[in-house]
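Side project, low priority. Logging it here so it doesn't get lost.
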Amino acid sequence: MKITNVTAHGLSSPIRPAREHEFSGGTRKILKRDFVLVLVETIDGEVGYAPAGASSSAMREYFDGATHNNFVKVIDDVIAPTLEDEEIDDVTTAHNLIDDINIPGFLRSQIISAIDIALYDLIGKRQNTPIYKLLLKQSDVTADPNRTLPLYASGGMYMPPEGYAEEAAGLAEYGFSGYKYRPGLGPEDDLRAIKLIREAVGDEMDIMVDAHTWWKMGEKSYSPDQVQELTAKFQEYDVYWVEEPVKPDAHSEYRKLRDATGTPLAGGESKESPEGLKQLVDTGAVDFLQGDVRHHRGFTGCWDVVQYCQETDVTFVPHHFGTQLGLVANAHLVAAAPGSELLEYPVFESDRHPGMYPFPLADDILQSPFNVEGGELTVPDDPGLGVDINLEVLSEYPYKEGAWTEFHYDEE
């Protein structure tokens, strides 16, 4: 197929008033949520869509004060001229063209991810086939696809311990079988929080802990002894996993923590490439690997990692913390992946349920947002991604420059 247009659109969903969340070392303020929608068009008038990861951390080597709008600029000024007028009969052809451009690793991985997803959407539409079936066709996997996926609720951002327990109980009633929250209130309150959560939900709900704050507080970051003690004690509350308890590239610390505590660990979302994900698997320190089709070279890169995990005891459970378009993209991956079934569902504040903060664009990006009542998602069986994009969001959510979140750390 001949590519005629590649475009990116930066969008912002403001949060008014801004939300402030206190943790042990300071305060996190949420000002807005940003999103980039990528479109790839063919000479025949077909359009493939993709959610872009577009994290500012991936662009800091390329832009000073990087924002999502810089990602749009790279797509429009660098990637579009590279791909337009090219015949792309194989997704990897686009990968190779972008790999030849001098772009830093993580940024390149996220750009390739967006183009990869859009091309898969196009190919699925051309072949009248949903993406999860495309993935199965090109592999040796013989397992039947699983289109009904249980969702775990991803919420709980730096609340008082009682707040976590209340949110978890409400989400259990809504039908979610798992609840993930962000600790960082201080070791004593972190233990109190998981105790109250377990008391609130009983034995029927899995509890996941996303501990990235523990190492993000500068001088007030938890010490290795505190991290080890907390990780071990969380076992008393049947924790499903502890996620990113140490810095993402600290493989030896992951291994030491796993050996010392036996607690199931998760990680991988911050890796810049599929190779980085595989290296984390090779440590033997994680039980759950959290790749993301928006970050790790799209379906092509993540499917390679999924198959790599088949030879190990590691379960691929994708990271997802964005819009429903990103949710459905990762859902196609999970539907095809044997041994994987869980999917992360960010709990944003809405009329349907409480949440961390409002992000209406997350739903509005689709013409018909998913109804996940009962805590499950049925993967679309229509061609490509299987969803219709609501292009009215391009005018309804204009991009607002500036950081989406701020961390303010307490002074000594």
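Brief comment: The chain has a mean pLDDT of 94.
Revisit when time allows.
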